[in-house]
């Protein structure tokens, strides 16, 4: 099973959303899940609200 970023975000934020409960049930029974690299990257970067994202610098230098 492949789980996308939005579902992990709901789950990790302890949301009461149906999707969060759905994933929690699968984690509880140790269901094998695939987490694509891009999803891991997005989770490590973190989530934010639109207003907080607007405050981030947009001229970052990639090293």
From TrEMBL:
It comes from the Bacteria. Keywords: Hydrolase, Membrane, Transmembrane, Transmembrane helix. The chain crosses the membrane at residues 23-45. Its EC number is 3.1.-.-. It is an enzyme of class 3 (hydrolase). GO terms for molecular function: hydrolase activity. The keyword Hydrolase applies. This is Ribonuclease VapC15.
């Amino acid at each position: 099973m492949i789980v996308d970023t939005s579902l992990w975000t709901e789950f990790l934020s302890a949301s009461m959303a149906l999707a969060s409960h759905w994933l929690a049930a699968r984690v509880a029974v140790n269901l094998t899940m695939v987490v694509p690299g891009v999803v891991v990257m997005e989770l490590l970067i973190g989530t934010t609200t639109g207003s907080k994202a607007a405050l981030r610098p947009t001229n970052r230098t990639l090293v």
